[in-house]
Amino acid sequence: MLRGLSLAVLLPLAGSALAGPPESAGLATTRTDLTPKDLARVIAVTRPTSDFSKPEQFELMQGGAGTSRKDVNRDAFSQSSANITFEEEGTFKLGNALFRKNWVSSPSSTQASDGLGPLFNERACQNCHLKDGRGHPPEGDTGTTSMFLRLARDASNEEEKAALADHKALNFVDPVYGSQLQELAVPGLKGEGRMHVDYQEQKVTLGDGSVVSLRKPSYSVKGLAYGPLDTHTTLSPRLTPPMIGLGLIEQIAPADILANADPDDRDGDGISGKPNIVRDSRSGELTLGRFGWKAQTPSIREQAADAFSGDIGISTPEMPNSEGDCTAAEKACLAMPNGVQKRLGPVEAPPPVMDLVTFYSQNLAVPARRDVDTRQVLAGKKLFYDMGCISCHTPKFVTRRDAPNKAQAFQLIWPYSDFLLHDMGPDLADGQAVGEATGSEWRTPPLWGIGLTEIVNGNNFFLHDGRARTLAEAILWHGGEGQKARDRFAAADAVDRDALIKFLESL
After folding, report:
1. Judging by beta carbons within 10 Å of its beta carbon (0-12, 13-18, 19+), is residue 141 exposed, middle or buried?
2. Quick one: DSSP state of residue 106?
């Protein structure tokens, strides 16, 4: 069976995940955007290769026609899709300006820029998404600019359990500190506290006798300003992920993502990917989550609105609470002025702002592959397939033909992700359930651009909390459904391990 292509498995999957027909939840069981001829082409082109003697056709252009061919440098993740129009390039630049904009506290003479906080993690989107790339964990006194702690607890009564069952809630916030720890605050208000990380080094001996040191983190909060956390609140560190290719991911047909799901492991391969079914905040309909570390967000616009509210404290039409993440227990926070300007509407970031930021986020180009035809990279690619990595890191998709923007329509893309939830074992577990995701499940992250992390961000921190300092460490942390692939990597000789890493660095 070709993983990612068998549409016949969709009906039993959708039926087990939802009450009622899957179409009512936006979970189409077939691709309605394709003619039979197009569907045959898609099946052929996305079939996993068995020829590793040369690159596949179009493999260099891993972001489709929108792939950036610009020089590789610190701006490699900040280029616009190569196939947008001249007019759209202007829209992209306006969105970029808003993405970089520093918001200020209210009241302010700048007016359209005020509304920060009152509690916040950063003043601008770009300050968390460093160069549109990956964040880093706190080191010494550098703070947690691009990594934060999600705060959540499980349902504690029947009403909350019903809300989870009906997908009206993903989990429940801390009653005092809300959905995430806010380290910063506007003048006259205290920040909530500060994330603290302790690392314990642990040695791993590989099959050839090589020894790798992994650092195991533990998390706590220092200087809590408003009393203790709820005893049931869990702390989940979340590193800021790269922004590239988001618009293409948004246009992968739900049927193609769901075709890889096997929540009950019926084929017995040990891989049990499952979708995170969530409610769209705008339509109220059930749909497929595909963004965020636990696939809890269905769209780029909703992801942006959540970040505006939680990270900066800016209200949007999607999340109109101008107090941001302040809770009823934080009365001083709720009493602070907000930045709503009546002439601009009832929120601090009105629809035009959201339109521009969303467009910018949808059109950050994926960089072209490098060294795609070298012997070592091709050998590493074969090992990536042979070790079973593609069971979760699905190489290819073809986006919807009816995508709203032609730049993302009918593109062959190479994200190396199935966008499903997988149990990654106890070592990576955060204990925090998010919708359908359990405390040990994570969405498979896309791998495109991963080889440019150090060039763009000046570091090599990987996984949801940046504990891995190299790609090899990231692989060795895999457990649960990734255990078999991890063990094969650990058992390989140095030549093969180096080749696989070189393949990843070419993405």
Report:
1. exposed
2. S
